Amino acid sequence: MSNKKNQQGNTGALSEVSGSVLVVGGGIAGVQAALDLADSGFYVHLVEKSAAIGGGMSQLDKTFPTNDCSACILSPKLVECGRHLNINLLTLSELVSLEGEPGSFKAVVKQNPRYVDPDKCIACGTCAEKCPKKVVNEFDMGLGKRKAIYLKYPQAVPLKYAIDAEHCIWLNKPGRCGMCEKVCPSKAINFDDKPTEHVLEIGSVIMAPGFKPFDPSKLDYTGYGRLPNVVTSMEFERLLSPSGPCMGHMERPFDGKEPKKIAWLQCVGSRDINRACHGYCSSVCCMYAIKQAVIAREHSESGDLDASIFFMDMRTHGKEFEEYYNRAASEGVKFHRARIHSVLPSGENDNLRVRYAGEDGEIRYEDFDLVVLSVGLEMPQQAIELAAKAGVSLDADKFIVTDPFKPVSTSRNGVFVCGAAAEPKDIPQSVMEASAAALEAGRILAPARWKDTKKKEYPPEKNVYSEPPRIGVFVCSCGINIASVVDVEAVTEYAKTLPGVVLAQNNLFTCSQDTIDQMEETIRREGLNRVVVASCTPRTHEPLFQETLRNAGINKYLFEMANIRDQDSWVHQNEPEAATEKAKDLVRVAVAKVRGDAPLPYNSVKVTKSALVIGAGVAGMTAAVSLADQGFPVTLVERKDDIGGHARKFYRTWQGNPVQDYLASLVDTVKSHENIDLKCGVSVKGVSGSVGNFTTVLTDGTELKHGVSIIAVGAGSFKPDSDSRWNYLYGKNPNVHTLLELDQKFIAEDSSLSGINQTVFIHCVGSRVPERPYCSRVCCTHAIDQALKLKELNPDMDIFMLYRDIRTYGQRERLYQEARAKGIIFIRYDLENLPAVTEEGGNIKVTVKDPIIDAEVELNPDMLVLATAVRPKVDVHDLAKFFKCSIRADGFLMEAHMKLRPVDFATDGIFLAGLCHYPKPMDETIAQAQAAASRASIVLSQDEIPAESITAQVDPRKCTGCAVCTEVCAYNAVSIDEATEKAVVNEAMCKGCGACVAGCRSDAITLKNMGNEQIMAELETIMDNW
Amino acid sequence: MGTTSEKNWEPKIVAFLCNWCSYAGADLAGVSRFQYPPNIRIIRLPCSGRVSANMILDALRSGADGVLVSGCHPGDCHYISGNLFARRRFALLNNLLEFVGIEPGRVNFSWVSASEGEQFAEVVKEVTDKVKKLGPSTRLVKRIG
After folding, report:
1. I need a surface site. Which of A18, A65, A224, A829 has the fewest CB within 10 A?
2. pLDDT digits (tens, 9 = 90+) for A217-240
């Protein structure tokens, strides 16, 4: 890190360093990395091997733990990526070679022929309808068929058909078929299409090739491939999906019957060194199995689906995962702690018999209609070859090697990695790493920012003042999310009857690229001057549709949304008629509102190009250095007198790297960095302003002006109170320690440790308990690593681990295997049978019930180590209030979106990283801090950002100059003009809250497009027909 | 399309929600599939501070049986202090409502944050129950013809 310290000043490199980046892989990780880079001033070539971007996430039905529809949250990102001026999307493409050095690489990319001209294809689907050749559809995991000319999936980006050369009749025997060419109305078919080679000059590379679900056909015991009703989890995902082979009606693949009893078998192809050759844990399967069980029960027509999950350790170690697990269990999903011995046919109806050992050791048989194999994640062969071409090293599990302190850097300088290719991981973690990789890829190219990019030009806006309203209404089915409850056809027909509406149409997914493109065309063709979309929430989708209006030459404020999903179909699932009536009401109101909307100017404000980072632990320091290296001045504020945070107490990472050496060099970088102003012993006293222009006052009176803020205040550790039932003699007996206290003994090289004969670790002390239901994520791995360290010091030491579930997710599983191999004994306990710890003459006695031998075990350790919970800081509430951030019930800060915006807050310009978000190990903390820096760089790299257009306006004829408005305005945006004695609004300072409007006695102030008359009109419209 | 006949009467409730907390909370109720009665129509406003006494009276005048105003918890306002102005304004309005004979429970205020989906569903259930018990609102309704 220190060697890059002066790079930002080195502008002499400007001419040599490229301003472009190559991103390989168009899944969610690659897409996020591309968007972050393109938004912060770099030109991106995004290379995807298949015909469309979207990756594994596009195949999912719902995502955990929010049960968000995967396509719904992913689609806007894909559309944004597909339309981005500074992203060059290369589908059907692969990297051939990569030469050069960081700053100036030369990549050769081969693009395979699509045989369909994307400029001409209008995605009408006539070709696929007429194509005689049926092919197994790999997007549906082979459960359905597609044609040899196909669209990868309905919301595909780009929305262009492609011909599968392997199966096309013409391409294999020219002259034989050619049906698509005959029927294509736009003459888009080109059988003579040839592979093309692109030579790209780029400065850095991001690898995001993703994963492949494990193929269980070689695991005979599962019956997969032999028994028709054994499916993989990815296949089941398609069976649940509304765009899947059975349109979201959950059916068995062969006989089409709805299953009434389903079993999920965990760890198929994971944690299995014998048969599957994969020792690692795949991290995501426990959660997706619970999610599938919950969703399957929702899908089940009778509502009484019997769902059983067979698992070894329940690994719900992420944010809100444990709560999700508890909720599923309380709602009736059954959990069996057993690894399945075999799956057998049960004779009738192709049902299945599962053989397993119960917790009491008895062999049991149970019959199911369907068995879902929770298959693990592995590195695809293509990605292994790709890694070789890019010259990056793989580890023994074939994942791309990274460094715990540089979690997105590969073995080759200037080549970065994100997502499941570095280790199995979930979507939020992949998205975080994607932003982190974007930060790293951009950091070395900072001098060339905006060098290769293009600027967006919108068509001139049509003046609609003189026109009567011509409103278009687009009603979304959202797959079946809306349409399964609300009668969307009836709503569409109803919309046509409303005053001012000239067109209403229903779409399967209004946010998909084809509908968006078609909407733009419809606006032009029909001369629409106002648009209403009835779909999901404006909080996520309004910007996408507003952009479409601008592209069509309409002011973006001539737009309204009717929220008929989040606030209708999803909350009235059992009342379809009432929900349909409500949808009509919401559309009617939106139409009434948009009729009164006026076009507004696009305001902007200058950005203060500096950052405030709060908290100087590893997260805060990493974020500060990441921004400072790019040339942005950073103020780093630490409440304590010295910096380093929690990391000062850590001995080594789980990979075995000493933390203190790393920390020392990071602290040194922070202290000596020319762009970092470090302020210790102070905290934040007050904050005003908004994205681009914050003013923060510190406790020492300093006033800071900054454009962005990163909150990285960390967390505390749970210290068991003497009277709590989690106390276990802590603070009473000198030989009882927390994990961090033992780490400090390791750091101090305490020689007494090697003399210890017996050590007992108790896991989950204060975590996963009623008052703190979350899992602290880090302790299992940390405790096991410490046990291994103790074994290094004294191989004869007896070590016992009293645990509830071992959660050594991902490649951390290696430590668990090693610990077992070295004779460390694991004894499971549960909340009903807590270990009892007593003291006799200074000697510790631990008694615990071992469920395997079904007997009490008595241990007499020399040392007892408690894996205590990570606990959110209490004073984070003050900070959250200053910055208007939400805090979850468990005390951790709440990000803007759990899946896809893991480091943003709902309030623009404020980001988070580290333990204040959720407990996490050092590598993940560093990645998250880099991600926060990446998101912050997007703001800081702009000269101006859009400002509020919906502002207050005074009618001087009505104003009496009473000055109430000046008192209620929190931003000092209103004042009384001395000459006229009337109120005036400073538009640049007005945030559009409307407090002055509600406070005005004379009805003299209005909020643009949200004036009293407009709201009254909304009210009357609601009541008129209700 | 609700009917006013005594038997099948269902209350009509208008909700004014701030965009940043309560409207987001209502979205979260949907994302989490917390079910609540369909008797509510939401008007999205930037801030609870945007809600004037007039708007509440107008809702009652145009036939709403109940009104819900919901904003960020005190201290969480996206616009610093809008919700506090709202709170003061409604404390005063309550006196007026009582004076003109609007029963307690017709006009409701609550704080719902963006992370309180379940809380939002509960508030809607509670308010619907309350208004149901009170019966149709007649006090301020405009009667034309």
Report:
1. A829
2. 989 999 999 999 999 999 999 999
